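Here is one chain, start to finish.
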Amino acid sequence: MASQIHPTAIIATGAQIADDVSIGPYSVIGEHVTIGAGTVVGPHCVLDGYTTIGANNNFYRFCSIGGMPQDKKYANEPTRLTIGDGNTVREYVTINTGTIQDVGVTTVGDDNWIMAYAHIAHDCQIGSHTIIANGVQFGGHVHLGDWAIIGGLCAAHQFVRIGAHSMVGGTSSIRQDIPPYLIGAGDPFRPVGINSEGLGRRGYTPETIAALKEAYKLLYRRNLKVDEACEQMRALQQEKPVAHDALQVMVDFLAASTRGIARL
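Its structure:
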């Protein structure tokens, strides 16, 4: 099947577009852009920069993808944006390329649902299967784990890390790291427990969810320091081997945190 490119679209020489890509009216594709098979680019989109896009993505109208970082240190270096497969990117979403002050690439994984007016800044690392609701604003260098859900109009401070399977209520202000599996909301974000419902839907067993609830209590209810809570979680791994891997995700996240974690 041949590409379906509207005659008003502007495609730069050098752009690499798979045979069955669809590009709508008045969209602009830059010379360093690669677009994979089955991807749909709606009308009035701009895809620019050193941007690589995988297969079966859907960009709705007025998206701005691969624009230069909103960082005064940026000096036109050839930094990149990489987007995986099967993502839905709704109206007016902006995703910027990386900077040389970080790894030089902004990354979006697979099967994400990114709603209207969301902004993903330079050097963000977005996992897979996430939901980023309307108007979410990610500062530079934010890391978002797989299966995380971010409610509408949330704002995440630069360098914040948000763990896998977490769920953040709308209009929250995220100023410190949110460990995996947590659910909460607020300005600033405050955890209220484990995202049990979401974990159950993704096949986590009741035994594993119970162990994660105990890990939450160690971290937030036992008046322990983070390293002390991690030590207790390692002991819990021995007691609850069925939850070993899930608990290890929590321990590894806490060990890597540099901004500190969101507190009650």
